[in-house]
Amino acid sequence: AQSVTQPDIHITVSEGASLELRCNYSYGATPYLFWYVQSPGQGLQLLLKYFSGDTLVQGIKGFEAEFKRSQSSFNLRKPSVHWSDAAEYFCAVAWLGAGGGNKLTFGTGTQLKVEL
Amino acid sequence: GAVVSQHPSWVICKSGTSVKIECRSLDFQATTMFWYRQFPKQSLMLMATSNEGSKATYEQGVEKDKFLINHASLTLSTLTVTSAHPEDSSFYICSARGGEQTQYFGPGTRLLVL
């Protein structure tokens, strides 16, 4: 079955430090890749997405992510974290083609804490 | 652009009553909307796919007679939790699919069944 793995359940970084959140997906048909952020009690906000082309994509709030097909990864990065970035981050993948159904498969999420 | 609203944002009801949650795409049309359920500190669980003008497609283990979905227009899908019980208490989130297979999410509805 197609799956998405976020190995880190919790991450704590100091404000101003760099951040990398990991995401791996099981190999399958062409993946559409997404990162969403969720603040407590809120819905999900789209940070960025990758469909094709340049494997380094820029998103909102200073985030970027790099698609590495050979590693089946789509890691999220930010050079300098702000206290307001504290939230839950979800990686999600949609597989088009057989078995994909255009539905999103979510990772389990990574809770980011920012120390001041 | 790509704003999705949900109403109500929270609801408290008595056991045995029915609750309707609305999901609207405000600035785009969505032939497909999705309904998710999220338990505390967990990821989203897809309940069903709502298709405009046709029956919803439910995920395995989701009771279609308990969670009624109606997608009557290109901007509105509703989820009705029928005969709600305390175990139905949860955070319900909808999304609407826009361009490039991208889902845009509503702010969620917190349901508490007493």
Architecture overview:
The complex is a heterodimer of chains A (116) and B (114). Chain A is mainly beta and 116 residues long. Helix content of chain A is 0%, strand content 51%. Chain A contains no helices and 12 strands. Chain A has strands at residues 4-5, 10-14, 19-21, 24-25, 31-38, 44-50, 56-58, 64-68, 73-78, 87-95, 104-106, 110-115. In chain A, the strands form 3 sheets. In chain A, strands 2, 5, 6, 10, 11 and 12 form a 6-stranded mixed sheet that branches. In chain A, strands 3-9-8-7 form a 4-stranded antiparallel sheet, with no helix packed on it. In chain A, strands 1-4 form a two-stranded antiparallel sheet. The termini of chain A are far apart. The model of chain A has no long low-confidence stretch (mean pLDDT 91). Chain B has 114 residues and is an all-beta fold. In chain B, the strands form 2 sheets. In chain B, strands 2, 4, 5, 6, 9, 10 and 11 form a 7-stranded mixed sheet that branches. In chain B, a hairpin with a 2-residue loop joins strand 7 and strand 8 (76-81). The model of chain B has no long low-confidence stretch (mean pLDDT 94). Classes of the chains: A mainly beta (116), B mainly beta (114). At the A-B interface, strand 5 and strand 6 of A face strand 5, strand 9 and strand 10 of B.
**Mean pLDDT, all residues of chain B:** 94
Largest sheet of chain B: 7 strands, mixed
Task: Please identify the structural class of chain A as seen in this structure.
Answer: mainly beta
Number of strands of chain A: 12
Instruction: Show unreliable segments of chain A.
Output: none
What string gives the helices and strands of chain B in order?
EEEEEEEEEEE
The proportion of residues forming helix of chain A, as a percent range, comes to under 10%
Classify the beta-strand content of chain A into a percent band.
over 45%
Q: Helix count of chain A, per DSSP? A: 0
Specify the overall morphology of chain B. globular
| Percentage of residues in strands of chain B | over 45%
Q: Low-confidence segments of chain B, ≥5 residues, pLDDT <50?
A: none
The pLDDT mean of chain A sits at 91
Radius of gyration of chain B: 13 Å
Biggest interchain interface, per-side counts: A-B, 22 and 25 residues
**Assembly of the depicted chains:** heterodimer
Structural class of chain B: mainly beta
